[in-house]
Structures are given as C-alpha cells and as structure tokens.
C-alpha cells in the first residue's frame, strides 16, 4: 500500500533562490504529522507543490501514490486549508459551504453536519467577512472536510485561535486521525504540536533536519530532561550519584540530575535508604529541540 502522502526528492527553485531542497518524507493514515520550520523554511511551498498549485523543479509529491493533479476524485481524497481558506466575505458561512458543495455534487445535509462539527452552527447565517480569524479557520476546516477525505493538509490551522480554540483544534485533529485519516499540519504553535502530533518533520532552509515519531525525536535529541529531587538527604544522594558519573547540580535542599531517569535515581534512593520529599521528571520541550535543530534563536523572524 502506498503512503497517504509521499514527498520524494522534492526541490523548488525560484530563480537563484532554492525554496525547497531535495526534501523527502511520508505521512500515513491514522497519524497526525507536524510539519515544522522557521518562516521561509519552505513549508508552504512544499504544501503547494503537494496540492498541485506550484510545479516542482525536480522530485515528486503524491497522495495515495498519485500526483494531486491526476487524482480521479480529489475532493473525496484530499482536504486542504491554505492561508486560512478562501471565502467570499459577503456570503454567510452556510452559503459558502453550500456553494462549494454544489460545485462538487455534495448536498446541504453534509453542510449542516460540518457546521455542527466545527462549532459554527449558531454563526452559520452570518456573513463570513465578519467572522473572527479563528472562525474563518474553522470554516476552512469544514470546507476541507466536505468530501469526507482520508487525507488532510492544513497550513497553520491554529493561527488566530484563542486558548480554548487551540484546545478544540487539538482534540479535533486527534479525532480525525482516530478515524483513520492522515493529517499533515504545519504550525508555529510548538506546544500544541507536542500534544497533538504522532510524527514530526522539521525543515530549515528547505532541507529536512529531522523527522520521525515525536517521542523518538525527543529521545535522540537528548531532551529527556533528567529529574529534580528535593529533601533532607539530597546532598548525600548527589554525592553518591556524582561518584557514579552522573551530572548533578543544586544545593543542600534540591538537586537536578540531568542524565539519569527517575527509575535510575529511585533505585539509588532505595539502595541507600535516602529520605527525600520530591522526585520529579523534568521533561524536555519540543521547542528546545526545534531551536536546536533549526538553529533558530527564538527571536522574531
């Protein structure tokens, strides 16, 4: 079986500028894949090539083994949201979806189902031009789902969402993947990607710098974080761990052990009958890994 999405050796040059450089990755059904990279890294150009909106200089991008432009039934195969989705500001949200549905032979019943699904039922009669950015994002998601596709391609769907909306989107994308869909989502909201994605593809300057299951990527990058231990005997615990080659820092009341797991430290505590009041794993963040891989500094771009 072909992958839901396969990008193989994809390259795009605009004159002397190489926007995407020999990029390869895959996306499978039943999984959310986060597509990460700084502004200008080539994410949107990659998605546009995947959807047949930009011709690659070389390489290929396919959906279920076929280029998008050769799909027999694209609306029932791929749903996409780019740039927040295009809409007529004078049409209501309901009429926007009905117009798209009519062009694809999809009835009004599906439109009503989707308005309910994306929580726009109460605002469906309002002109879409008056929607907030978050509401327009949700309307774009509804449009992408009109044909009940198995593959979703979403460019920055969290843009403009408030914290409640971001949480809704996280649950929504997980539900879609749970239904067996493949979800490829580019995002700058790294904290949400870390809670949503099964896999990640990280690019910088058009090239892949890391990809794979999120948890494996975190482990390979050495971002386990270690453990923090507090209590009356932590100085003795720190001395023992240090003598065993561990990296230990802290003071007489609290220490951080950066290269041992909670289980490893717990064994030393039990073996030496050390009294502690707290042992907490310190999780590394996707943001740390992202900055390390892309060379980004965390400043504005």
TrEMBL record:
Listed transmembrane segments: none
The UniProt record lists the keyword Nucleotide-binding: yes
GO-annotated molecular function: ATP binding; ATP hydrolysis activity
InterPro entries: AAA+_ATPase (IPR003593), ABC_transporter-like_ATP-bd (IPR003439), ABC_transporter-like_CS (IPR017871), P-loop_NTPase (IPR027417)
Family matches, as SMART domains: AAA
Keyword annotations of the record: ATP-binding, Nucleotide-binding, Transport
A Pfam match: ABC_tran
Boundaries of every ABC transporter domain copy: 5-230
Signal peptide start-end: none
PANTHER family named among the record's database cross-references: ABC TRANSPORTER, ATP-BINDING PROTEIN (PTHR43335:SF4)
Family affiliation: Belongs to the ABC transporter superfamily.
Protein name as catalogued: ABC-2 type transport system ATP-binding protein
């Amino acid at each position: 079986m072909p992958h839901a999405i396969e990008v193989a050796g994809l390259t795009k040059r605009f004159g002397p500028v190489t926007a995407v450089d020999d990029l390869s990755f895959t996306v499978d059904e039943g999984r959310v894949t986060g597509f990460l990279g700084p502004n200008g890294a080539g994410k949107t150009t990659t998605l546009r090539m995947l959807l047949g909106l930009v011709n690659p200089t070389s390489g290929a991008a396919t959906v279920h083994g076929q280029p998008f432009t050769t799909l027999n039934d694209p609306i029932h195969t791929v749903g996409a949201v780019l740039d927040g989705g295009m809409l007529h500001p004078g049409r209501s949200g309901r009429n926007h979806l009905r117009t798209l549905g009519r062009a694809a032979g999809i009835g009004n019943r599906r439109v009503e189902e989707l308005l309910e699904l994306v929580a726009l039922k109460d605002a469906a009669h309002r002109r879409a031009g008056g929607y907030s950015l978050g509401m327009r994002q949700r309307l774009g998601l509804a449009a992408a789902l009109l044909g009940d596709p198995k593959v979703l391609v979403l460019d920055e769907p969290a843009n403009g969402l408030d914290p409640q909306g971001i949480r809704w989107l996280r649950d929504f994308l997980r539900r879609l993947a749970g239904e067996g869909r493949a979800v490829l989502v580019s995002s700058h909201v790294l904290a949400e990607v870390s809670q949503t994605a099964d896999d990640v593809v990280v690019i910088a300057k058009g090239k892949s710098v890391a990809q794979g299951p999120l948890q494996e990527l975190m482990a390979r990058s050495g971002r386990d974080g270690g453990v923090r231990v507090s209590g009356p005997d932590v100085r003795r615990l720190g001395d023992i761990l240090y003598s065993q080659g561990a990296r230990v820092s802290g003071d007489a009341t609290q220490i951080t052990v950066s290269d041992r797991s909670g289980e490893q430290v717990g064994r030393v505590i039990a073996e030496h009958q050390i009294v502690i009041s707290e042992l907490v794993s310190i999780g590394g963040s996707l943001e740390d890994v992202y900055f390390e891989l892309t060379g980004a500094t965390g400043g504005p771009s």
